[in-house]
Amino acid sequence: MSSANEAPEPVSLAVPSVPPTAKPRPPRPPRSLRIELMVSYLSLLAVVVIGFGGSIYFLVRQGTYHQAESELLVSAQLLARELKSGAPKLDLALPQPPRHRFGPPPREETYFAIWTPRGQRLAGSDRLPPHARNVPPQPSWVRPRPFYSVPHDMHLDVYLHTPDGTRIMVGRPLIREFEHLRQLLLIVTLFGLISLAAGAVGAWWLARRIVQPLEQMTRAAEKITAKSLDQRLELVGASSELTRLSTVFNTMLDRLHGAFQRQIRFTADASHELRTPVAVILSQAEHTLSRPRSPEDYCSALDTCLRAARRMKRLVDDLLLLARADSGRLEIRQEPLDLADVVRQSLTMLEPLAREQQVRLSSQLLTTPTIGDAARLAQVVTNLVTNALLYNRPDGEVFVTVHARDGKATLVVTDTGVGIPAADQPRLFERFFRADQARTHQEGQGTGLGLSIVSEIVAAHQGTIDVTSELGVGTTVTVLLPGSQPTQTVPEAG
Q1: Would the pTM of this model clear 0.70, i.e. be above it?
Q2: Which of 205, 230, 266, 400 could connect to 363 by a Cys-Cys bridge, CB 3.0–4.6 Å?
Q3: For residue range 346-400, what is the model confidence (pLDDT) as tens digits?
Q4: Domain segments of the chain as ranges
Q5: How far apart are alpha carbons 396 and 357 in whole angstroms?
């Protein structure tokens, strides 16, 4: 225990060292396709050349050793025959090799030695290499064979065992053979270098030929801007793969060009539609404020501005819905519902418009279960029936049916209007498109976005929509939606 007078020990606070934040590695620069092709081609060529040259050198070297081994084995067998015949050991000698094969001394200097089973030397050449003066131990891997060969630097020795245990060694230098092998290695190396040089030229030409169409496509693509989307890539004499690539790229440009044109037309139409209510509000406000007015005049001006503002709000809401659909953010609830209930509620709200248009509105609604967004589907019904009422003749009729068919929830809206011209039918679902306004007796109704919204909502529900029309007879719109579990269908006349 420490005393009271003893000073307390200082406490050290160790601060853990914070490793420095690792700097992000800079992105690697893009590699050239031409260089990659050349490197790949030359690497493959180098592997082939080295493999081919190495195989030739190895086979020739093995053949040279086998030939020298066979010659030395014959000489050893001759010595064994003379030794078996009882010839004096001092008279044993090797036959002289042909001069044209081995050349002048010392290349033809073949040597030999004979040892007893106990390792005593019986006979041998006067000049023996240092490695051949003593009998070596027999390797274990040569026991099944009566002879074996052992290379020593530039010499080759063949050992032969006779039945009585005598060991005979015959060897000679391989100077001439090694010179031939060196010449062969030099020739193979030169051939490989020449092949690689020629392959480099060929690789450069081949890479240039492959990359040239891509560079042509790149230059053509760099010239394409938002103002020149009508330009296309043209490749003459290109491979099928590059031709397919250019075709896909041109098809993409066609889609982009079409989408860009639709976007320009859509922006212009939206600006035009918004300009009208804005102009009405501005003109009413300026005219009303130009001098003092009565309360009735102010109320009339505000009513006009209110109607214009409502029209503008409806247009902005429609544009917002289409923008969400284009970006894939159109929110669609997936809830079980009865399509007949949705249609019934929408028709109830549209009955005043039907009376105003002097058009008879009738329906036959069968219980039809489906899965979807009731509010969005009500918007589909409202837009379709509203168009059928507006583009109809006085004392006409609009008939709406809902039923299940082939596992699909089916909505059919049929009117007795004047019909739609065949030339206009493919464009019905384009934004801000209006068919001949002479077909309706109330000009200025709608903004041309109703059917576009219908198409987007139906597509978001994974459904389809089809329009058939005949001039002077009427129009029929059929909407098919995915069905759900079937329930009892009860007919109801409206």
Answers
A1: no
A2: 400
A3: 999 889 889 988 999 999 999 999 999 898 899 899 889 988 998 888 889 999 9
A4: 31-125+145-222, 240-326, 335-482
A5: 9
